[in-house]
Structure formats: C-alpha cells, structure tokens
Write a structure and sequence with these properties.
- This is Mobile element protein.
- InterPro entries: IS1182_transpos, Tnp_DDE_dom.
- Pfam families: DDE_Tnp_1_6 (PF13751).
- It is a single chain.
- With 409 residues, this protein is of the alpha+beta class.
- The chain has 13 helices and 15 strands.
- 45% of the residues lie in helices and 19% in strands.
- Strand 4 and strand 5 form a beta hairpin.
- Helix 3 packs parallel to helix 12 and helix 4 packs antiparallel against helix 5.
- The longest helix is centred in the C-terminal third of the chain and has 27 residues.
- It is flat.
- The two termini are 43 Å apart.
- The chain binds iron/sulfur cluster.
- Iron/sulfur cluster binds next to helix 9.
C-alpha cells in the first residue's frame, strides 16, 4: 500500500518498507508501540471519548503453535532420546563417508535436529521450573486453554479494560494464566498508568470474583460490580441442592440454622496460607431428615464460613438493586462487542508472533487499531473536524482531562 495508495505513501513519507522490515519493527519495539497506544488513549481522553466506567474482561486467542506440540515431561524425554539416537546414526553415516576428515559444513538434517533439540531442552527446563503438566515446544510461553467452543488449544489470555462511553480500550495485557482471577489488580494498575487516574466504576464477570479483589477495589475507592460464581444460578433458581443462602447464620451461638430448622454447630477450622481461617459447620441430623435428597449427597451437610463473606452479601444486595442490575448489564454491551469486532471483523483469532513478550506487542497493536477505528467513527458521527481538533490538542488549547468524571491520582 506504501507503493500504490496515496494516503499510505504520504503517511510513510514515501518510504517503502517491505514486510520483513515491518515484521522486525513489530517484534522489537514493545516500548514505542505501548507509547503509541498510550498516546491514542490520551487523544481519546482529550476528545471527551472516555467516561468514568470501565469493564474488564479477557478472551483466549490461539497461539502460533500446534496443539500436537504440547508435550508432557515423559513425551519430551522420549523425543530427546529419539533425536540423540538419530544424531548418533547420522554421525556414524558421516564418518563412513568422510572418514576422519571434517566436512566443511554440518549437514542440514543435523542442523535442524540440533535446533529442535535446543528447543525441546528449553521447553523441558521450563516445564520442570514452573512445574507444568505440559509445555508447548513451538511456543514455550503459550498454555493449553479452553475456548468458548469447548476446544483446547495452546493460547494466551488477552485482557482488556474498555471504557463504556465509546468502547475505547484503555488498558491491554497478554497473560498466560487461563484464569482471570489474578488479573484485576494488574489491570487497574495498567489503567492508572495509561490514564493517570483510576476509574470510578469497574464492571467484571464472575471470573474476577474473589474476596481479595473486592477488598482491593474497596481500598482503592472504586465502585465495583462483580457477581460471585453462584449468583446467577441461585437468582434463576437453577441450583439442584439447597443453596448456602438458605442456611441462616446465628452470630450469638456461632452456628447455622438449616432449612429443616436444625442447628448446625461449628466443628473445625481450616488454616489457609495468606488467607483468613475457614470455619466448618457440620450437621448431625441429616440421616433422619426428610429434606436430605434436596440438600446433600453426602452423609452430612457441611457449611463453610469465610470471615469476609459479608463482602459477597453486600455485592449481591448491590447487584440486586435496579441501579446495580442496570449498571452490570452495561458490561455486556461494553466489552463483548470489542472482542467481537477484533475477532469477527478483523479476523484476529490467532497470533502471528510467538512468546509472551511478542504476543503482547501484537495485541497492543490490535488494540491501538481498534481505538483508531473508534476515533474515526466518532469524528464521522459527531461531524468533528479532525484537523482542528489536532491543532487544538497540540496547541494546548484542549479543555484538559475529564476531571469531573475521573478522580486524579
Ligand atoms: S439434610 Fe441436614 S442440613 Fe440439610 S436440611 Fe436436612 S438436616 Fe438440615
């Protein structure tokens, strides 16, 4: 396009980089690419395209690696043995042909084997160090993850924080942890780094629910809307057994009262690393109870109690209000379309680069493209003059950050 399209020729200042140059640039310039992402987000902020509420979510994108190359420790050791045996055979064959003299070049076959062996050994080292069940030989950083269609592929978990106002991605990160649970804190930090301020409202699905996350958001003074894993099923009455909410806690006696009106006493404590003790309450009347089939499959029903459970209770109460339901519903229409536009409209279903660092660059580039497209749509829709706006921002005549909507750090 830098040779045929006038607009691209102008933008590239008549330079004609070939695909190798572009590819090299893309895989080595994480810093500048992140900086461009930040500048585009700042521009959106100046254009008043960013509000106060963000939705955080993750999607799995397939790594540039075959699932067949994901191997266990045993399989890797077998392959190492096989390659070493084949190399010895090739060496013998070479000796027969060349005798004691050294050939000028190592045969190509042997060079390939050596490269493969190095890759496998690196993968084995990672597998042992990180205590993984399997590791992918082609892309050691990728992990087998379950996709929405049920398939399992070597993939990365791509996290985004999307602003509600114009679906601008304000933070993006690639991680190789399948679960979203530990991504809340880094993503909020990421948002702060890009915007220079924290959001006032955060929406996320049950994958982000943990007492640690709720406590963190509370400390940050962020109004969070995150349901727990059983919230939806319990609200829709889809739980097969008596849900925990039906067991009333008696603070004075430190016991629960079950639906059959029996008292369930405290029995033991489970110590947990880095978390408060978990308290167990076990019922002794289940064997004689007429409601047992609806309550438990076990001999005795056990109820656990975490001292932070009031956080879940408060969250459920908040989500059940009209305002809470309305706010949480916004999550779907904010972040889900962004993944749809990336995957369906732009065909971003698989990474072209390998390794966590390089896939991180590729993803940030995709997010920058997404934001630029949103700016173009916004200018068209609002009938704004881009040239005038750029002049205003570059000349320092902008009206500044959205101080009223975002709390400055
Ligand atoms: S099964 Fe046990 S815990 Fe459940 S309702 Fe009956 S007595 Fe209560």
């Amino acid at each position: 396009m830098t040779q045929t399209d006038t607009a691209f020729m102008y933008l590239a200042a008549m330079q004609k980089p070939d695909f190798h140059t572009i590819c090299r640039f893309r895989s080595t310039h994480l810093g500048p690419i992140k900086e461009i992402f930040s500048q585009v987000v700042t521009f959106c902020k100046e254009m008043d395209m960013i509000g106060s509420s963000i939705s955080i979510d993750g999607t799995k994108i397939k790594a540039n690696a075959s699932p067949r190359q994901s191997k266990s420790s045993d399989a890797i050791e077998k392959e190492i043995d096989k390659i070493l045996k084949e190399s010895i055979e090739t060496d013998k064959y070479e000796d027969e042909i060349y005798g004691g003299s050294t050939p000028y070049q190592i045969p190509e076959e042997l060079v390939d084997k050596k490269k493969r062996l190095e890759k496998i050994k690196a993968a084995k080292k990672q597998l042992d160090e990180e205590k993984l069940k399997k590791v992918n030989i082609t892309d050691n950083d990728a992990r087998i993850m379950k996709h929405k269609d049920g398939s399992k592929k070597p993939s990365y978990n791509c996290q985004v924080a999307v602003d509600e106002k114009e679906q601008i991605i304000v933070a993006a990160e690639v991680v190789n942890e399948e679960n979203d649970l530990h991504q809340m804190e880094p993503m909020i930090q990421n948002v702060k780094n890009t915007l220079g301020c924290k959001p006032t409202i955060v929406l996320a699905d049950a994958g982000y629910f943990s007492y640690e996350n709720l406590e963190f958001l509370q400390e940050e003074g962020i109004d969070a809307y995150i349901p727990d894993n059983f919230y939806k099923a319990e609200k829709e009455g889809k739980t097969r057994k008596f849900r925990k909410a039906l067991f009333k806690y008696d603070e004075e006696k430190d016991c629960f009262h079950c639906p059959a009106a029996f008292e369930i006493p405290f029995t033991r404590i489970q110590k947990r690393k880095g978390e408060p003790d978990l308290r167990f309450y076990v019922c002794s009347y289940c064997s004689q109870c007429v409601l047992k089939n609806a309550c438990t499959m076990s001999e005795k029903r056990t109820i656990t109690r975490d001292p932070r459970e009031h956080l879940m209770k408060d969250m459920r109460t908040k989500l059940n209000t009209e305002k809470g339901t309305e706010k949480y519903q916004k999550r779907m229409s904010t972040v889900e379309p962004v993944f749809g536009q990336m995957k369906h409209d732009r065909g971003f279903r698989e990474f072209l680069l390998r390794g966590k660092r390089k896939t991180g660059i590729e993803f940030v580039m995709m997010c920058t493209v997404h934001n630029i497209k949103k700016i173009a749509d916004f200018i068209k829709r609002e009938g704004k003059n881009l040239k005038g706006m750029l002049k205003m921002i570059v000349g320092g005549g902008s009206k500044g950050w959205n101080k009223g909507e975002f709390e400055r750090e």
